[in-house]
Amino acid sequence: MTKNRISILLQCGLTMLLFACSIKAPQIVVTGEKTALENQAIGQFQHLADENSVIASTRSIDPLPAKETVGNSLDAVSSQRFRRDEINELKHEKVAGEGNDGYLAILPNDRYRQESAYRERVDRLVQDENLDRRTIYNQLLLFSTTAEAASDSIARVKLAKMNADDSEPGVMIQKPNGEWVEKDRQ
Predict the structure, then answer these.
(1) What is the rounded CA–CA span in Å between residue 98 and residue 17?
(2) Strands 96-98 and 104-106, sheet pairing
(3) Which of 49, 108, 141, 144 has the fewest other C-beta atoms within 10 Å?
(4) 52 within 8 A of 143, measured Cβ to Cβ
(5) Whole-number Å distance between alpha carbons of 138 and 28
(6) Tell me: the pLDDT tens digits for 117-138?
(7) SS3 47
(8) What is the rounded CA–CA span in Å between residue 91 and residue 111?
């Protein structure tokens, strides 16, 4: 009986020793640098800044835009990415669609007409999205190198087509003649 007790105690002791050696406290190092998630939340989109630098370097005759303008464009892109899921939800509910002028348009449905809280949410999201689009459009116009590209109406038509092409099937798209159609599900 004592041999069994000693054997059990020895096994328990070895098990405890084994587990005690394999558990290690995590090492925490503070670097002072932002994590990838923080960078994403803050909206540091280096690719947009790089594109603006390349475009700006080709326009040596014209003065460069103020740094605030470029910063506003980056903020606008960040805001758009932040609210993308909500905008897609509105598009799939068919209460918002891609207008032929490059802006998001409200397409009032029964819920929009009947629920004031829903209507206020839709109005706010569409207004914020369109303000960001306007900021980005202005930035693109500022960097355009030809008279045709600098035309606001031509730029908005091209951007409207781009927004329509980027939309998922089932989203409402406004044709150039003003007619609203559902994007094909292919």
Answers:
(1) 66
(2) antiparallel
(3) 108
(4) yes
(5) 45
(6) 999 999 999 999 999 988 888 8
(7) helix
(8) 14
Distance from CA of residue 162 to its chain's centroid?
Answer: 16
> What is the rounded end-to-end Cα distance, in angstroms, of the chain?
78
CB atoms within 10 A of CB 137: 19
DSSP E strands: which ranges in 27-184?
96-98, 104-106, 172-174, 180-182
Q: What is the pLDDT of residues 57-115, one digit of tens each?
A: 444 344 444 444 556 888 888 888 999 999 999 999 999 999 999 999 999 999 999 99
The C-alpha torsion from 69 through 45 and 127 to 156, rounded to 10°, is 70
If 0-12 CB within 10 Å is exposed, 13-18 middle and 19+ buried, where does residue 104 land? buried
DSSP secondary structure string for all residues of 60-101: -SSPPPPHHHHHHHHHHHHHHHHHHHHHHHHHHTTSEEE-TT
Q: Give the pairing of strands 180-182 and 172-174.
A: antiparallel
**CB-based contacts of 155: which residues, under 8 Å, 6+ apart?**
102, 137, 140, 141, 144, 149
